[in-house]
Specification:
- InterPro entries: SAM-dependent_MTases_sf.
- Keywords: Methyltransferase, Transferase.
- This is Methyltransferase domain-containing protein.
- The protein is α/β, with parallel strands linked by helices.
- It has a single domain, classed as 3-Layer(aba) Sandwich (Rossmann fold).
- The protein is built from 12 helices and 7 strands.
- A 7-stranded mixed beta sheet has the order 3-2-1-4-5-7-6, with helices on both faces.
- Helix 2 packs parallel to helix 5 and helix 6 runs antiparallel to helix 7.
Length: 306
């Protein structure tokens, strides 16, 4: 618990001023660059690539020449990269700040090339390998973007209304929507829906876990259930490690309210022993009204149609 509380306190400290937020981002990106280059391409990223490509095939999401929007591309633009390697599409990368890590990105590109090179050959694999070789030969992000057909947009407000309405066949994100301020979500999803063309799709992976748990795994992945909204805002909520604590029923209502039609909802939940651990302590409002199934939900993978 001390580490959990310490990370929260430090995060609130960094959030107290603009210089503190900039310092946090700079220090964090230096550490992430080193760790990601040392670790190489994780298996979970390969799993995400396989799952995304399978969903696009299952629902016939993309055709040659289509436009894709990745929301919150972060350090390595992973979903956008996978789609651009395997489909003839152009991609808009949308971020609220510049967190790009060139060394980590090149490490992931090289790792994915090695993965594909070991797979059975085919037209799609050959095309992806050729594009990977060209991207790895580029000197900077601009060169990689020319190869992959990327346009990078940074909008600090987070609003999407500056993009082309009705232009995109697919919107995609991974572990991003939980960082959108809760009070902005309804408007944000309205804007996202307006960007899709008729018949377009949205594929989102949403992480519902307590993000301080990643710093202190001794705590429950849903430890934040212990705290009311007032307590959470006072002691834990901050700008540099913000996550909105929105739960599965709310997400479903928000998507429906924005006009999205559910196509698929595949969730990952707490294992039974963690749910038992969660039940051992009181749950604060508003989470005490959730069903056991909703309380246990750790991750949502949603596919919606416009």
């Amino acid at each position: 618990m001390l580490k959990y509380a310490g990370v929260a306190a430090a995060s609130k400290g960094f959030s107290a001023s603009a210089p503190g937020r900039r310092l946090y981002r700079r220090l964090g990106n230096v550490a992430l660059e080193r760790s990601r280059r040392a670790e190489g391409l994780p298996q979970r990223y390969l799993d995400r690539a396989e799952r995304l490509l399978a969903l696009c095939e299952t629902y016939d999401v993309l055709a040659p020449g289509d436009r894709v929007l990745e929301l919150g591309t972060g350090w390595v633009h992973w979903e956008a990269t996978v789609l651009a390697l395997h489909h003839d599409v152009s991609v808009t990368l949308f971020d609220v700040c510049d967190n790009r890590l060139l060394g980590a990105y090149r490490t992931y590109l090289a790792g994915y090339r090695a993965h594909l090179a070991a797979a059975p050959d085919g037209d799609g694999t050959r095309r992806a390998l050729d594009r990977l070789d060209a991207a790895l030969a580029a000197d900077d992000f601009a060169g990689i973007y020319r190869v992959l057909g990327f346009d990078h947009v940074i909008e600090p407000s987070g609003h999407l209304d500056g993009l082309d309405a009705g232009a995109y066949a697919l919107e995609v994100s991974a572990d991003v929507l939980e960082h959108v301020p809760a009070g902005m979500l309804a408007e944000y999803l309205d804007e996202a829906h307006a960007l899709l063309r008729p018949g377009g799709h949205a594929i989102h992976q949403i992480d519902l876990a307590d993000h301080y748990h990643y710093f202190d795994p001794s705590m429950s992945p849903k430890h934040y259930y212990r705290y009311s909204d007032t307590t959470w805002r006072r002691w834990f909520e901050n700008d540099v490690q913000y996550f909105n604590r929105v739960q599965r029923p709310e997400w479903r209502a928000l998507f429906a309210g924005a006009g999205f039609g559910m196509v698929e909802d595949d969730d990952r939940s707490l294992p039974p022993e963690e749910l038992t651990r969660l039940d051992a302590a009181p749950t604060a409002a508003p989470f005490d009204a959730l069903s056991d199934e909703d309380r246990a939900c750790l991750q949502m993978l949603t596919v919606h149609a416009a």
